[in-house]
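Holo prediction. Input below; ligand is magnesium ion.
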Amino acid sequence: MNIPEAFKVSTRALYKNKMRSVLTGLGVIIGIAAVVALVSIGQGVSKKIENQISSLGSNLLIVFPGSTSMGGVHGGFGSVNTLMPSDATAIASQVPDALYVSPAVRWVGQTIFQNQNWATTIMGVGPSFPEIRDWPIAEGNFFDKEDVDGAANVCAIGQVVKDQLFGGIDPIGKIIKISNIPFRVVAVMAAKGTAGFGQDQDDMILAPYTTIQKKLLGIDYLNLIFVKAISSSAVTGAQQEIESLLRQRHNIKSKVDDDFTIRNVTDMLSAVMNITNMLTIFLGSIASISLLVGGIGIMNIMLVSVTERTREIGIRMAVGAKRRDILLQFLLEAVTLSTIGGIIGIILGSVLSLTAGTFIKIPITINVFPVAIAFFFSFAVGVFFGLYPATKASKLNPIEALRYE
Amino acid sequence: MSQDTRQDNKDSVVRAVHLKKTYFLDGVAVPALKEVNLGIAKGSFVSITGASGSGKTTFMNILGCLDKPTEGSYYLEGTDVSSLTPDRLADIRNERIGFIFQNFNLLARTSAMENVELPLVYAGVARHERQKKARELLEMMGLKGFEQHFPQQLSGGQQQRVAIARALVNSPSIILADEPTGNLDSKTSYEIMAILTRLNEQMGVTIILVTHEHDIAGYAQRIITFRDGLVVSDTVNK
Ligand SMILES: Nc1ncnc2c1ncn2[C@@H]1O[C@H](COP(=O)(O)OP(=O)(O)O)[C@@H](O)[C@H]1O
Ligand SMILES: [Mg+2]
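Structure of the complex:
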């Protein structure tokens, strides 16, 4: 008997037991759907985080005060005050790989325009901040070096702040109050969207760091220094140069830890990608357990089926079926069941992840590779779990099989 | 019939030589066939009778290549098939043997047509050809119009006729019928016997029939009687 003939016999048998076939296939459908959905969602999350991190700016280095071991980074902004404006100036003048440098301080508080109130983040930065963050200006002109040197009361606002405080009014030239101190709006930043970890970058006011330091916070240190390297290949070099420069400036002896931490956005990206990829693999593996359960379901039903159809097997052998024919018939039955289940599972999983993606705002793409793997696995499950029952069927003794009631 | 079909010669379609079959049940030897020497001529119609447990079915299973003898040889059309591989035996069953069973042994929820086609499926015959042959045979069995019926929609006699059509579809050398009327009422039994007689007389099909009923055995030209795994009588039926 050739394969198309055997295939017809197998599909016919599955069709005759519709309900049973559907229920058995359901195990594989759920397993494959779970794998496809979780892997697609996992990849979507990775993609989203990747987009968000790269939206921080290209070739970006961020210097935090405090060493990693001191908990400086973990402790959040301002827990240590080792970073000074002079460090930023030194980096700008002495690190050739640094294209732009911006000191930064941060404050969170109320802003008021006329009778409108809005709590937001105020970042005190340098004039090159828009270039560092690849952040275009929508209206007006960003404050310049003079404003920074003179600690001018000027600010640039994000789109969210504009909408909240001004509604339809043109904000340029208007005075807003930040912690009761008046600031003139000189620019509106272009919309940038959410920057990772839920923080909306458009919900922000940018002002000269000197103004924020002196008039709002009364501090002389910095919370951060942003550095943009001249090219992606210069990022690592710049990081090393900044490290040795700051160690020297902070008089750190060898074998003593840095009192600052330099984060490379590319490294952060790959670290996060590692985690999300691991998570995706982990979720996929968990989901494959349900596929395994589906496979065992197939094996179970195939064993029942072989027993039930013992006489059929005897009849087929009596009229000339070889062991191979019987094996093929039952194996194809299991494989057909599992691959059809797999195809339905792939479709279901894709629909599920696409739907979930629109709800949780994650860009889902159904990639060929995981789909091909899922298909292959559903096929393999059929072969693996169908082989034992099929072998059992093919080894039946025709006389005993014919006598079976 | 003037010729004595008991003659055992090289032209016998079936020849058993010192055939023995012993079953082992929990280590205890059960001799089902003690020593059988038989030849059955091509084109003959032979009945095998004997009490229950005398070894008739065991003998038929060996003739049908479903089982192998413990000792001795079985020649089918001159070839010793006692030592062939399971696959070769499957081929022989497919090409040269037609089975008719007491309980019909048709595939359930499978049409009469497809049941008849089954041996041809394993012979690798193309679908169109198979259907043509199956339709012809069903018609010959008086089952025109029942091609698409499932066995459970047919009477016992009709089911047995489907089984006969299936047995004939590969134009086998021998038809082996083990108690083919055992599950049928006497009227239907006679109809089936009339069909078998006609197949033998008009088409020259060799038929070996097992029965414990005298009137059924009487349809054959030769009656062989088994007792305790031995042939105890072998007579020409006039
Ligand atoms: N598979 C088997 N295992 C053990 N003993 C068997 C088996 N088949 C048949 N026998 C024994 O062999 C003898 C002959 O059986 P069988 O050929 O079925 O007789 P009959 O068909 O004439 O009634 C009986 O004693 C029976 O119990
Ligand atoms: Mg018997």
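The first strand of chain A starts at residue 60 and ends at 65. That is the main takeaway for now.
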